[in-house]
Specification:
The complex is a heterodimer of chains A (283) and B (155). Chain A is an alpha/beta fold and 283 residues long. Chain A has six helices and 16 strands. In chain B, a hairpin with a 3-residue loop joins strand 3 and strand 4. The longest helix of chain B is centred in the last third of the chain and has 26 residues, at 120-145. Classes of the chains: A alpha/beta (283), B alpha+beta (155). Chains A and B meet through strand 4, strand 5, strand 10, strand 11 and helix 4 of A and strand 3, strand 4, strand 6 and helix 4 of B.
Chain lengths: 283, 155
Amino acid sequence: MTAAGTDSAVLEPTTPVAYRVAGKRKEMGDTWTLELEPVGDQRLPGFLPGQFSMLYAFGSGEVPISVSAIAGGSGELTHTVRAVGAATGAICDARPGDQLGVRGPFGSVWPLDAAEGGDVVVVAGGIGLAPLRPAIEQLIAERDRYRAVTVLCGARSPDEMLYPSELQDWREAGIAVETTVDSATGDWEGRVGLVTKLIPLAPFQGERATAFVCGPEIMMRFVAAELRGRGIPPGRIHVSLERNMQCAVGHCGHCQLAHLFVCRDGPVFALDRVEPLLGVREL
Amino acid sequence: MRTIDQLLSEAPAFSGMSSDQLELIAGCGLNRVFEDGEYVMREGEPADVFYVLRSGRVALEVYMPGRGALTIETLDHGELLGWSWLVPPYRVAFDAKAIGTVHAIAFDGACLRGKSDQDTELGYELMKRIVPVLVERLQATRVQLLDVYGGPGPV
């Protein structure tokens, strides 16, 4: 676990800290963004882009959720959660004032410093845009550290495109943003097709580019192949993996991927580190 | 003003073709403009034309009773539109609608088939360039069929 902040020494990583739902916004049908604030004096150390927390809905279960925005040291947390099971359903059902248990920060980060001076291409599929949002916001905040910055987003349909108003804000902040959906009704005038189709259009030079990719694993495989075709070496293509993370500190082994623990060594990995493992069915 | 063979050489599918072959193909082509909302092709009509898009966007649509027109793919600058001209019974499979003004080069499919029959080297070169486009779209369609965004997400 990479934790920053002064309180980390007094917090046990396996003990949840009580947070209160301070705000809640519906993103789309089954997906909500929750703003959390500490209930008492105890607060978690600061999160970095790419890291995740374990959110505990009391009586329902605990799930790993990536941070979807970074607060400036106030102890507040932002998570975008899709209701796909009992625990995520209970988290999405939480109302302002309700309490959740939170552990973290856990895991590796999007290597923004390593991308400095080059082009950056961010590829997101579906709710995979949520873990990338803090990285995109940092790229915008430090825009002059990078050359061309491009965000490519794929979604199931126009109604299921995450953060639609922010996409426009990002364009206005000086980064190229392109979107595509898998299918649409006749009044949609944007692109329809796989997110991989956006990659040949993106303004980056492979030999000096770094890519951050998050989405369904099969999407990331196709995206990675396309990015490699554009000349980005696998060591500079970073993917965020999802496995069954439970303890989040590399003890329980549920998220083990061969010699790696996704919770501790990931979830953000350089492609050259995990690519051989992703093709192994038993893993 | 650029000639059709010059315009054609800028399309990724035709780049690197010999000037003689580009001239032969260009002999079957003419420039067309479609206004916003105009149908470039309609499902079921004879597929005697295919297009190389020079600018603008075309939506491939299928009409579903009760749901209306659904867009299954869009094509943009440099892409090929239409392959039903290649295989019997030469009937268009989907509606193709212009989104915004579309400039395209239209090719007479029967003319190209005839030239390819006479000049099999040209025909083979053409196939080598069209088949990868078909394969890429088939693979993309297969991934879309998986509905990868429909299940539990990565977070």
